[in-house]
Amino acid sequence: MYLWIWRRLPVRHPAAKAAVALGLVLVAVAALWFWVFPWLETQLAFDKSTLHEGAP
Q: What are the residue ranges in the chain where pLDDT is below 70?
């Protein structure tokens, strides 16, 4: 799969391909960090506890 992506990058020089690949990875990480994870946090209740104070 990675070889397929590497071959489809629009530049010829290996250093430029590496820079474009790094940029794509950074864009994917930013999209996850700013849009997907905040949305997911509202869907999953990580901070909600099922224990109640005063319960025996």
A: 48-56
